[in-house]
Design a protein that fits this description.
The protein folds into 2 domains: about 1-130 and about 325-405, no CATH class; about 140-320, Rossmann fold, CATH 3.40.50. The strands form 5 sheets. It has a 6-stranded mixed sheet. Strands 11-12-14 form a 3-stranded parallel sheet. Strands 4-5 form a two-stranded antiparallel ribbon. The protein has about 400 residues and is an alpha/beta fold. Helices cover about 30% and strands about 10% of the residues. InterPro entries: CAP10, O-Glucosyltr/Glycosyltrsf_90. GO terms for molecular function: transferase activity. Belongs to the glycosyltransferase 90 family. This is Glycosyl transferase CAP10 domain-containing protein.
Length: about 400
């Protein structure tokens, strides 16, 4: 995925195009422009600074918090290069950074080039550069990091003793590309898998337990959430995308079950390294009901299906662990820095808040203190970080600054 930085090869990253991220949002824009919703960041002499703060109604999204915490940890493990960029924490990368019909990239707010926009999910048409979905990897109780610590316990349920009913659980909402943009191999538009597999569950309850949350299952009970720590009891796990990539897919890779993954157009930072039939079994691929054929094959070839789950688990533990994610962030920012046509400096921006201070602020905030494991980094680095203020001395100042920013309709 580091190759995606080549979108900057032609023009480089100029001050002019980065300044466009700070310009007042065009009132005619239907989509929320990155000048409002993106978190802008400068790294200078190894220190990470936030050059804008979110309004209160844009504060607290785990997609943003997780990235800030992981970026701060990366800055303490590695000497990060001088670079300026923006992080887009919404489900899909800004639609304005798109490839045109002639193969060029467009960004309508500057005459030349693309700004460096980092995102955790995108389609190939977007010019954003992917980073890990850090919030899902490290913040919740059932985060990737937490489940990785339980792999030993999961192994006590061998594949042969797991249920043969394929399991999936989700809310029913689907990405934009299930409205006709994604077609299966038979040329038909792919239906929303979350809704379609809910219907298939009622037709084939002996094969599928894929009821959407809040709807009745085939036995008349209401479907509810099932902890990820318990889903490994099924041989086959069905993964579907929501508004964008599934935050559960990374975790499913750890469980040792064979994953049946519905095809989609959006992808995450490591997806190109995965191989169908090697790390997962593709569904919603040949036709809308091919999940039934995949399950039939898996049950007739149990050893091969089990091997798919084992390879997925090995891949995840080797490549998606926290040290690898921090290394990836370091390497990505190093690549970005090679295209910088100017030296980033806080003097050009209206505010420049040390990232460590924002993390201390979030760790003390009544509504956000429990949304991530801030102390994992603060206890190691934050309290004697010479680039931040000692203790929580910046809390009241940052609280006031966040409150002074008008709420924006693009959030929440």
């Amino acid at each position: 995925m580091l190759n995606e930085t080549k979108v900057f090869q032609a023009e480089g990253i100029t001050l002019e195009v980065v300044d466009s991220l700070y310009n007042q949002c065009p009132p005619s824009e239907i989509k929320v422009h990155a000048c409002t919703k993106a978190q802008k960041i400068i790294i200078r002499n190894g220190t990470v600074y936030l050059t804008n703060l979110m309004p209160n109604n844009g504060l607290g999204y785990v997609e943003l918090i997780g990235f800030l915490v992981e970026l701060y940890e990366a800055s303490q493990v590695y000497r990060l290069p001088d670079v300026e960029f923006a992080y887009w924490h919404d489900d899909n990368a800004p639609g304005e950074s798109e490839r045109t019909a002639d193969g060029k990239w467009k960004w309508p707010f500057a005459p030349h080039g693309l700004p460096p926009l980092l995102a955790w999910s995108k389609a190939a048409v977007h010019g954003a550069v992917l980073v890990p979905y850090c919030g899902a990897f490290r913040c919740p109780r059932d985060s990737f990091d937490a489940i990785m610590g339980e792999v030993h316990n999961l192994s006590f349920t061998p594949f042969s003793q797991r249920s043969e009913v394929a399991f999936g659980r989700w809310n029913i909402f689907c990405a934009w590309y299930y409205r006709g943009a994604l077609k299966t191999a038979d040329g038909q538009p792919a239906p929303c898998p979350r809704a379609h597999y809910d219907e298939l569950h009622h037709k084939y309850p002996q094969l599928l337990l894929t009821a959407a949350m809040g709807r009745n299952t085939s036995d008349g009970t209401l479907a509810h959430g099932v902890p990820l720590h318990s889903q490994h009891k099924h041989k086959y796990l069905v993964s579907t995308d929501g508004w964008s990539i599934s935050s559960k897919f990374d975790k499913y890779l750890l469980l040792g079950s064979a994953i049946l993954k519905a095809e989609g157009l959006t992808y995450g930072w490591y997806y190109p390294a995965l191989r169908p039939y090697e790390h997962y079994l593709p569904i919603m691929s040949k036709h809308k009901d091919d999940i039934l054929e995949v399950l039939e094959w898996a049950k007739a070839h149990e050893a091969e299906a089990e091997a798919v789950g084992q390879r997925a688990q090995t891949f995840a533990m080797r490549n998606l662990n926290r040290p690898m994610r921090l290394c990836y962030i370091f390497r990505l920012l190093t690549e970005l820095s090679k295209y910088m046509k100017y030296t980033p400096d806080c003097s050009r921006r209206a505010q420049c808040v040390p990232l460590v201070e924002e993390i201390k602020f979030l760790a003390k905030h009544d509504h956000h203190a429990h949304k991530c494991r801030y102390q994992e980094v603060l206890a190691q680095y934050g309290y004697d970080d010479p680039d931040g203020k000692p203790g929580f001395s910046g809390y009241e100042e940052l609280k006031r600054k966040h409150e002074e920013i008008p709420a924006h309709a693009g959030f929440g």
